[in-house]
Each structure stands twice: as structure tokens, then as C-alpha cells.
């Protein structure tokens, strides 16, 4: 199967990681992206290798908090009214997985994929020249009060049960680790397994350049039509050109559902837009990523400056960004980092590809064994990209995947899980 032609749609961190793993296995790889080096969520994210994030977004009791968040126009969660009708099936599914048993099932699957992350990410970083761009310094979650810490205790207990290492810290211990944090911080939890990168844009740029230097082709173009054929797939670009490949991988981030639907696969995928501001000379220094648990945002010390960001806005892929969100997060950050200078910040927003159950889709299409999906990584695409690449290469080359892929199957969104779909999806010895 060496030399097998593989087309990867999408040059974000997931598509590039898939291309890397396919190339390593001997495939002839073409990556198609309408804007290969351009702005995308993989370039501007917080840069966290967030392996300790194993809880789904939808958990029991969340619905009590949502109304308060939504009523605050610049709170951590926003639903744009004009998009609400489109969002209903996704929201319904999100609500349905908000039970204790579903949270256990989903967090188990997230813990399993995250437990592999460094096995796949570190060799990739070493190989492509990013060995000095990964900082294994852990992360610090900080709280303004004892009650805030206690409120999150069940979450920390659940994480610990899944192998997440934690260390509870007093206010003075927190400030010993991060002297820039002000007196508002009363408690902290250190998670040593977390790490961060120098700059997510550098990661994507270096990886893309390495792929081209090592034989991958990058094609600029938008895939408008995807058709499964008997021996592969045909992809028609805007402008009319049609390409054929033995295997096709859809890694088009938040846009992937449009292509999956053309094949007849039902996918629940929404844009969960996030915002941040990167301040090149913030006047304060952090050693590691800090998570502000009470107000739901983070700050990461990157090579390009201090990046302050978060927010979850459900407004669809075409809505204009509302950069008041970036500004409001900087205002909040000043509460915690009193010495922080805010001048010269660069605002940014990007579309997280969000599934209702917080699990990515890493799966053969239900309609064709030649087409593989790798999208829906939500808050964890940078973290899980290299492992997704490894799994997809296993599927491409008929190897037994390193994980049980049932929780990540596209068939979980089907109303009727027909025997045919299941046979096609799981019919290769795994
Ligand atoms: C504020 C914020 C902070 C985040 N922080 C972190 C973090 O700390 N750690 C972490 O792990 N994750 C984080 N994430 C999430 C992470 O950025 C995403 O999960 C990840 O980047 C998704 O990568 P992707 O390759 O799937 O999508 P993208 O980066 O969006 O790439 C998809 C590509 O597909 C192309 N494309 C789409 N449709 C077509 C088409 N039809 N034809 C051709 N090309 C097409 C697009 O042009 C794009 O280049 C964060 C996200 C946000 C918004």
C-alpha cells in the first residue's frame, strides 16, 4: 500500500497531523485547503496541551448555570438569537448527554485518547523541528474563594479517578509559582501533566513546511463537492477541477459537516467561537498556562506575548465576530494580573469545531470505507491532533487502531444505525 494516494481536506493542525502520519506510513499525500497558510482556529488558539481536560462540556447541573451566563452579554457563553433555530438539534443532543452515566462514558473516552497524546505529539515535534517549542511546565487553575474550589471538587475527584495528577495549593503557594497573580487569588490546583507550546501558529507553519519538504503536496482550493466512488472518492473544487484519490480524509474543522452531509452522514457539529487578545509586552510574566476557574478564561505565556482568551459563542460560521468579548476578557485578566499592561493587544477569534458530546469524530464515513473523518475536536484540537493523525493512518492502512474508536464513530449521530452502516464502519477487524 506504499504510494497509496491520500487526499486530506484541511490544513489545520488536525489535517496536517493526519498528513504527517500518512506520509510516515508511505502514502502519497495531497492536502487541499482554500487558504493553506491563512488564519484558522489552529493558528490563534491558547496553545495548551490540555491532556487533563477530560470532562465533557455537558455535565449534570450545567443547565442551572446556563441562564446566568447567557443573560450576561459578555459572559462565558453566548447564543446568537438568529442562529438559535439551526442550533436546536445540537442543543437537544447536548442536553441529552448531560447525565451522570454519559459524563462517565465520555470522560473515560477523553481520558483514553488524552493518555496517548505525548506518545504521538513528542515524536512529531522532535521530527519536524519543534522539540524546543513544547514546555512541560503544567498548568495552574486558580480560584477566588474556598467555595469556588469546593464547587469544583466533584470535577477534580472525577479527573483524579481518571489518572489526572493534581496538587492543591494555598494562596501563598500559588504566588510562589506565579508571582504576577494578585491578591484576588485565594486557592489553586496545579496539574503537572498539562503543557503549552511556544506559539500554535509556529507549530502549524513548521509542520506544513516540513510536510512539503518531505513530499506532501499542498493545493489551494475549496472542495465544493465530495462523491464516494467504488474505488475511492472524487472531489470537485470551486472552479470545476475534479481530483480523485484512493483515500480521502475530511479534516476541515468546523466546516467538515457540510462535506459529510453530502455523503449522507448525519453529523452534529457547530462553530463554538472563541476569542482572545495577545499582548506582546504585557509587563508581567507567567511561567505556565493559568486557568481562571471562576470566570472561565485562560492566559498562556507564548513566544509572541501573553495570550488571554476563552469564551464560547454559538452564532454559526458566517456571523461577524464581536471583539467586545476579547476586550472583556482582558478587563477580567487585569483583576488577576494587576501589573498587566494592555496596550498593543492583538484581538483574534476562531471557530472551534464542537460536537454536542465533546468527543471528536475519528471514524470511517458510514457510506464509504475509503473516506475518513477527523474533525470535531472542540477545545482540544491542538492537544489531540497528532494522536488523531496516528489513528487515521491506522485506518488508512488497515492496521488495528491504538484505541477503541466506538465513542468517536460518526454513526453516533445517526437516527437509524442500520446494520449496513455499522458493518461498513466497523468491518475491518476492529
Ligand atoms: C480561543 C480558543 C482557544 C483554544 N485553545 C486550545 C488549546 O489551548 N489547546 C487545544 O488543544 N485546542 C485549543 N483550541 C481548539 C483548537 O484550536 C481546535 O480544536 C483546532 O485548531 C481545530 O483544528 P482543525 O484542523 O480541526 O480545524 P481548522 O484549524 O479550522 O482547520 C480547518 C481547515 O479546513 C479548511 N477548509 C474548511 N472547509 C474547506 C473546504 N470545503 N475546502 C478546502 N478547505 C477547507 C479551512 O480553510 C481550515 O484551514 C482553542 C480554540 C479557540 C477558539
Question: What does this protein look like?
Answer:
The protein has 430 residues and is an alpha/beta fold. The protein has 2 domains: 5-43 and 202-269 and 358-426, FAD/NAD(P)-binding domain (3-Layer(bba) Sandwich), CATH 3.50.50; 59-99 and 132-195 and 270-354, D-Amino Acid Oxidase, subunit A, domain 2 (D-Amino Acid Oxidase, Chain A, domain 2, 2-Layer Sandwich). Helix content is 34%, strand content 25%. The chain is built from 14 helices and 21 strands. Strands 4, 6, 7, 8, 15, 16, 17, 18 and 19 form a 9-stranded mixed beta sheet that branches. Helix 1 packs parallel to helix 10 (200-213), helix 1 (13-24) packs parallel to helix 13 (381-396) and helix 6 (117-128) crosses helix 13 (381-396). The longest helix has 16 residues, at 381-396. The chain is globular. The relative contact order is 0.20. The model is unreliable at 417-430 (pLDDT under 50). Residues 9-15, 32-35, 40-42, 45-48, 50, 222-223, 251-255, 274, 276, 309, 350, 352-353, 375, 377-383 line the site of flavin-adenine dinucleotide.
Count of spatially separate domains: 2
Each distinct ligand:
flavin-adenine dinucleotide
DSSP strand (E) fraction? 25-35%
Unreliable stretches covering 5 or more consecutive residues: 417-430
Evaluate the radius of gyration: 21 Å
Shape: globular
CATH fold-level assignment of the largest domain: D-Amino Acid Oxidase, Chain A, domain 2
Our count of helices gives 14
SS-based class: alpha/beta
Overall pLDDT score: 93
Biggest sheet descriptor: 9 strands, mixed
* Quaternary: single chain
Identify the CATH architecture of the largest domain.
2-Layer Sandwich
Number of separate strands:
21
**CATH C-level category of the largest domain:** Alpha Beta
* Cα distance spanning the termini: 19 Å
CATH superfamily of the largest domain: D-Amino Acid Oxidase, subunit A, domain 2
Estimate percent helicity. Answer: 25-40%
